[in-house]
């Protein structure tokens, strides 16, 4: 899965912007309390493939690997599904000096749908 996360913050009275693009691998445990509904939770491992940072002072401090904890709910009926998921950052986005630069974690909300193509049995 490919996802994007970003933030805006004030630094020296100027708004700074950051946007990161990750390739992510969620490893989810899915429990079905009802026939078509499920609850899922697990870790997600992400690798940064692109960054767009408005200030050069933060370049080089952003980590390439990122770990999140994920949880969500979904619905599957026959070949159609819909889900929503939240990913809360466990690791820090970068290796910053907390006194002079922002020190933060990502939080990402996702929603999506799926369609399964079934072949003949």
Q: How is this structure best described in words?
A:
The chain has strands at residues 2-11, 14-26, 29-31, 37-53, 65-77, 80-89, 107-115. The protein has one domain. It is elongated, with a radius of gyration of 18 Å. The model has no long low-confidence stretch (mean pLDDT 82). Strands 1, 2, 3, 4, 5, 6 and 7 form a seven-stranded antiparallel β-sheet that branches. The protein is mainly β.
SSE topology sketch:
Blueprint: E1 2-11, E2 14-26, E3 29-31, E4 37-53, E5 65-77, E6 80-89, E7 107-115
Antiparallel strand pairs: 1-2, 2-4, 3-4, 4-5, 5-6, 6-7
Which properties best describe this structure?
121 residues, mainly beta, 7-stranded antiparallel β-sheet, elongated
Summarize the structure.
The chain is mainly beta and 121 residues long. The chain has one domain (2-115).
Shape descriptor reads elongated
DSSP strand tally:
7
Q: Low-confidence parts lasting 5 or more residues at pLDDT below 50?
A: none
State the order of secondary-structure elements, H for helix, E for strand.
EEEEEEE
Give the DSSP E fraction (strand runs of 2 or more residues).
Answer: over 45%
Mean pLDDT across all amino acids? 82
- The total domain count is 1
Sheet/helix structural class: mainly beta
